[in-house]
Amino acid sequence: MPEFAIRRTVWSEDAPHLQEVRHEVFVREQGVPLELEWDELDAVGRHVLATSDDGRVVGTGRLLPDGHIGRMAVLPEWRRCGVGSALLTELLTMAREAGHDSVVLHAQTHAARFYARHGFEPEGEEFLEAGIPHRTMRRCLVSP
Question: Domain 4-140 has what CATH class?
Fold first, then answer.
C-alpha cells in the first residue's frame, strides 16, 4: 500500500494545493461548475491535506466553524488506500478539539456507505447539490 501523510492547514497557506485536488476531483471528474466549487467558506474553514511520500497532494477535506465537514476529495489513483479514512479521522479529531458535540456533512450518495462505516447516520431525504445526488449525514461526537 502506498505511503502518505496527513497534515492540518488553512486556506491562506495551502490554497493552490487544496484547489489542485478539488479541481481534479470535483470540476474535471464530476463536472461541478467552478462557481459552485469555490466559496467564501474556504477562508474560514480548517483544512487537511494528504500528501504522498514524494510530496504530492493526493487528498483534501475541510471543517467549518459550525461543525460541517466537506470538500472531501481524493485523487482516483489514491482511492481505496486509506487516504479518505485518514482525512476523515483527522477532521473528526479537529471537530472534537473545537468542542463540537456532532458533525454533519453532505455525502454524495455513492459515498454514503464510506461515511456510515465511520459512524455517520443519514438524515432526511436525498437531494441534488451541484447536480449530484447527496444525503445529509450526522455523527455524534459525545457519548450519551
Answer: alpha beta
Q: Is residue 70 within 8 Å of 61, Cβ to Cβ? A: yes
Q: What is the pTM of this model?
A: 0.94
Strand order in the sheet with 121-129: 4-10, 46-52, 57-63, 68-74, 102-108, 132-140, 121-129
Residue 5 is inside which H or E element, if any?
strand 4-10
Label the pairing between strands 68-74 and 57-63: antiparallel
Sign of CA dihedral 50, 40, 126, 29: negative
C-alpha grid cell, residue 14: 495551502
Q: CB-based contacts of 113: which residues, under 8 Å, 6+ apart? A: none
pLDDT digits (tens, 9 = 90+) for 78-109: 999 999 999 999 999 999 999 999 999 999 99
